[in-house]
């Protein structure tokens, strides 16, 4: 049976087939594929979410190359334009290209060209001779201070497809903004998504609504799995079947009569932590991975999630988040009283605008201390369900604080922890934490 793609899918396929650098508009897509402008707009927004296109002010929407996970820290010139709120003066067709490095042109022209090479971005003021030489070398140019460039440079940029961008910010601010954007990309790189670990549709085992219970037994013999997603004729996930559903059932009975309807699903852009929480909360061993139309893309198992979480803990940290900072600063107290205690010093990054320990960091300290205490009793990952916090006194910058987590109760799946935070033998905060535990 031939399944026809929806209009939404047809538009996404059309966008995917366009060459990198092509300009895209709602009206153009609607006219080319004979669809409404509303449908075209929704599909273009979805393409933007999938990093197939990029929308830039005063330029429009252009087709870009989809980044691979390992190259995520490399920014495109289109992203640079967004970061610095820039205006493209020339070379629009090269906005999809990625930059290898950026060079600040605060030197003589000859010295500047020694550092400027193909694929780099020269950040410079209104030195038009530097603009021209950089484009000839194969580099893009970012003009700071809101200055323009000559028509000759604009024409050359269009010919070579190398962007010349103007921004109103000064050179130092621009370099800081780009550096921050690269740093943010590095942190994004560390966030593991379902997309990174799921078993793809081609390798996944599944059943259709027309299959019988006998087909479940056949799959069970060949794959040794006991859980399978069930799809309809359009490959949309409509249910899940487990060994519990088919036990003592007639082998000729249709799967849709025994399956569990409306199962929990995840999408490829769902974070690993979110997927892990859903699995623990619902007691699920296997979940279907779907797209926005609920079509099966693959499956994810509890083993996949736990393996990825363990690998994640061993990864070197490239871009540090606040949680990483808190975790690295927290040290085990060496006192002789046999009580589990952790110590840390309040650094400037941990404070709020008043110079005291911020509430968000306080919460992170409580969670991290509880996690370390529980890891002594049980191997597993912690998913916080509820925290009740009591802030008694503000904690000043550079104060040394002591955190004492105490286990109140622990079951197979749930734990309760009481946490006391002290500074100079005085209680400055207390917390009660309830958490779900994921067994390893």
Automatic annotation (TrEMBL):
PROSITE patterns membership: CBS (PS51371)
This protein's record includes keyword Signal: no
Keyword hit for tRNA-binding: no
Domain of life: Bacteria
CBS domain segment(s): 259-317
Keyword vocabulary terms for this entry: CBS domain
PANTHER family assigned to the protein according to its UniProt record, in alphabetical order: CBS DOMAIN-CONTAINING PROTEIN (PTHR43080:SF2), CBS DOMAIN-CONTAINING PROTEIN CBSX3, MITOCHONDRIAL (PTHR43080)
Name of the protein this chain belongs to: Thioesterase
